[in-house]
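ok so I'm stuck.
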Amino acid sequence: MIPSTLVPPLTWYQKMQMDNPVHYDPDFSFYYGTGETWQIFCYKDARCVLTDYEI
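replied:
not stuck anymore, here's the structure
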């Protein structure tokens, strides 16, 4: 059973694309532990970051 407090991933992803396409998350945690990260949700923004190393 899925807890009702969880947001469906696609809904969350679409909301981030529209409202906050480049997001800094100082409290991000992943398999490797905790740390800070930038999350990029739009293709054009991701392409820009990956091709322009001086950003």
